Amino acid sequence: MRAGAISKRQFSQRTAFSLLIIATIIVVIPVFAIVLQIIINGASAISGDFITQAPSQAGKAGGILPAIVGTFYLMLGTILFALPLGVMAGIYLTEYAKENWLTKSINLAIVNLAGVPSIVYGLFGLGVFVLLFHFGMSLLSASLTLACQALAMTVTTSREAILAVPREYREGSLAVGATRWQTIRHLVLPQAFPGILTGAVLAMSRAAGETAPILVVGAAFLLPGLPQSPFDQFMALPYHLYTVAAHVPGMPKSTIWGVALVLLVVVLSFNVLATIIRLRARQRRLNA
Amino acid sequence: MKMNTVLSNNNKVISQSKTKLRTEAVSLYYGSFQALRNISLEIPDRAITAIIGPSGCGKSSFLRLFNRMNDLIAGARVEGGVELDGIPIYDKTIDVVELRKRVGMVFQKPNPFPMSVFENIAFGPRRHGKNNVGELTDIVERSLHQAALWDEVEDKLGQSALALSGGQQQRLCIARVLAVEPEVILMDEPCSALDPVATLKIEDLMRSLAENYTIVIVTHNMQQAARVSDMSAFLMMEEDRAGVLVEYGPTSELFTNPKDKRTEDYITGRFG
Amino acid sequence: MLEQASKATTAMSLKKGLQRRWRLGEKFIESWILLAGILTIVVLLGIIALLLKEGLPAFWYTPPWEFFFGTKWYPVSEPPTFGIMPFFVATLWITLVATAISVPVGVACAAYLAEVAPAKVRETVKPIIEILAGIPSVVMGFIGLMLLSPLVQSAFNLNTGLSGFTAGIMLSLMSLPIIISVSEDALRAVPDDFRQAAYALGSTKWETIRHVSIPGALSGITAAIMLGVGRAIGETMTVLMVAGGALAVPISPTEPMMPMTAAIASGIGNAVRGGLQYQALFAIGLILFVVTLAVNLIADKVLERQKRKFAR
């Protein structure tokens, strides 16, 4: 075998692998760049007042408390609607559904809902919740809209979590004379709970970051006070960021970065929380 | 219905024994595939009946007729009659959940719930409405005694059942079934996942349980069937892969003097 | 005689004990569970119904041909004209730029993670990609606005850095996680037996990746690309903040432009409910919905085929 031929193939391999590594670096570096820039530029704006005070001077000074509160209300509202329905739909698909057209339609609907652009959800929320149901531009309309968007995710994660519960448990339960619902309620759901919870936290994290739907359906830039009822308008971090970044002239730069930093912290901490739940559940299962 | 006086190989007299379970020309289909064909037999009360035969011949499917666990499989269909105490259990008016309370099942691989020992056994009674802690404690203790497991776990009731050994887990599953006070206990190859010592413990347990319960056991281990059972049913797969009943009778007779050549071939190990 | 009678009553009570129970509580809960399942279909149908109800009338005012190919979007002129070519072409440019960047980079990165990277590297990189996936689109838009657009402006000597090109770069970052994740799954699904066979014939690792793994994962990778494209088409906030918002049909990607999603987002606040502009915006929404639906459905079908290909 000619020595030259071997090294040519090795050369190709080394070149190719270098390109692959470069590609990975191209993916990784922007993440660090983005996160670091936000931290560096935004840290100066963060203070006790920033997080606990309302905005003043048309948003150029003061704090962003209403936006933070509004975002948390939205997260709660979203999960309040999306989680029970998502879990029940997940239960239906795993425990009750037969191989028929209804089941296929539901699965198809879930795939489709997952792919609908967020602005289209905004239009849906506007037409149905704001106008048709007369909820107006409100926290309620926005929560329902985001819940529709989150539904595909909560159904999918619940379904997977429930499917992961071994069949033997169900058989053992039925074999001592428990009903199907009793088996689900007392055996399957408790086992699937960590997975369901992970999905819920991820859905909340996503709801915190969504702007397009709430832009259309109820978010406001400057409000005198915190929302007192679900029918009130509300402020929210992502909408606040969008407005101050793109539509408020003379905004102090550090303030804008500060808003971005707070939003990023909220979203990423929920992602981390979801990961912690997932890992702890896996550990517990391995230890048993 | 009365059965003739019979002497089993354990010298137990099954005289005037009433029939607990009965199948009449029963066939089982999974969709268009016929898994069991035309099986008729009567299983006596308070005795151990073994279902033996080569693997894949439908023994487990047959066993699951008695607690309607086959209902869980989409496309499963039963023709013919299956009766418990003379009551047809595939009748539309029958409550399957209540049936499964009376006809309990222990599975091949021990399947304790991921809970404490106590909660495992209390699971069934709880679902049937018993909530009083004192009552449950009594039930748990009684069931563990009946399953010959009490001594080994009495100080571990709060610990996870998954921490027990294989043999202990299986006895826990038996205790779990006993806690709902069944009349029949179905056992689907209960020892095949266990070591020989654990197996013998469970066989002893079976014999003691047979004084109060009807036991039907599926086993691919002929020696076990010969050791433990009073009656034996030999099932085999025909060419179209449907399981049929070849021979059924007192264990001692079936093993020493089989009437059918196929039974004889199986018992002497000519095929497995 | 008495024995017969008592036997009969015992038999009766036995039978009664086994009679069907009503179990109303169960039935109640189970009907709610069924309703929840059906809800997903209801929501989807609701979206379709609403888009049709509000959007179809737009085509009575502007014939479809003019709507699709018209280049003038003047909602406040007398009479208003609605042509969406500027938006459509903008979406095309941005998607093109995003795809051109994210597909090679994403597939290469997936190949590296699935086939070459040592476990420690993989375990470090994957969480970083998940962080990337978690960054909200408005934050990405903000970064594009503050950091990227000045760079693009000076690099190409433009009047403004807010352009389709800038938006495309930010969108590629947002499409990368899904492309990498799905491609990596597809590569890992290729059974190891195939690789072993190639090695046994004397192939190098790269040759195996190139001639065995990637072809084997091709349908999954195609699906990944389609999902990435779908994501790029449907993204709103990033493009709203960074693509420039100009209403002319963009001839080059470095021009400021307004893709379909941004057009809806920026116009819907001002549009009179039920008015012509409102309907036209819903019509764009309808088109967006159909396009992303088609892309996602095809991707899903392709993924199913990939799963069945190697199912054992």
Layout of secondary structure:
The complex is a heterotrimer of chains A (288), B (272) and C (312).
Chain A: H1 3-42, H2 48-52, E1 55-56, E2 61-62, H3 65-96, H4 101-115, H5 118-132, H6 139-163, H7 167-174, H8 180-209, H9 212-217, H10 237-246, H11 253-287
Chain B: E1 19-30, E2 33-44, E3 48-52, H1 59-63, E4 76-84, E5 87-88, H2 96-102, E6 103-106, H3 117-127, H4 133-146, H5 150-153, H6 166-178, E7 184-188, H7 196-209, E8 214-218, H8 222-228, E9 231-237, E10 243-250, H9 251-256, H10 261-267
Parallel strand pairs in B: 3-8, 3-9, 6-7, 7-8
Antiparallel strand pairs in B: 1-2, 1-4, 4-5, 9-10
Chain C: H1 2-17, H2 24-55, H3 57-61, H4 64-69, E1 73-74, E2 81-82, H5 85-116, H6 119-134, H7 137-156, H8 164-189, H9 192-200, H10 205-216, H11 218-234, H12 237-242, H13 260-268, H14 276-309
Antiparallel strand pairs in C: 1-2
Helix pairs in contact in C: 2-14, 5-8, 5-11, 6-8, 7-8, 8-11, 9-10, 11-14, 13-14
The CATH architecture of chain A is Orthogonal Bundle
Question: How many strands, which pairing sense, and closed or not: the largest β-sheet of chain A?
Answer: 2 strands, antiparallel
Which runs of chain A of at least 5 residues are low in confidence (pLDDT < 50)?
none
So what's the overall shape of chain A?
globular
Structure description:
The complex is a heterotrimer of chains A (288), B (272) and C (312). Chain A has 288 residues and is an all-alpha fold. Chain A has one domain: MetI-like fold. Chain A contains eleven helices and two strands, in the order H-H-E-E-H-H-H-H-H-H-H-H-H. Chain A has a two-stranded antiparallel ribbon. Chain B has a single domain, classed as P-loop containing nucleotide triphosphate hydrolases (Rossmann fold), CATH 3.40.50.300. In chain B, a hairpin with a 2-residue loop joins strand 4 and strand 5. In chain B, helix 3 packs across helix 4 and helix 3 runs parallel beside helix 6. The longest helix of chain B is centred in the middle third of the chain and has 14 residues. The two termini of chain B are 35 Å apart. Chain C is mostly helical. Chains in contact: A-B, A-C, B-C.
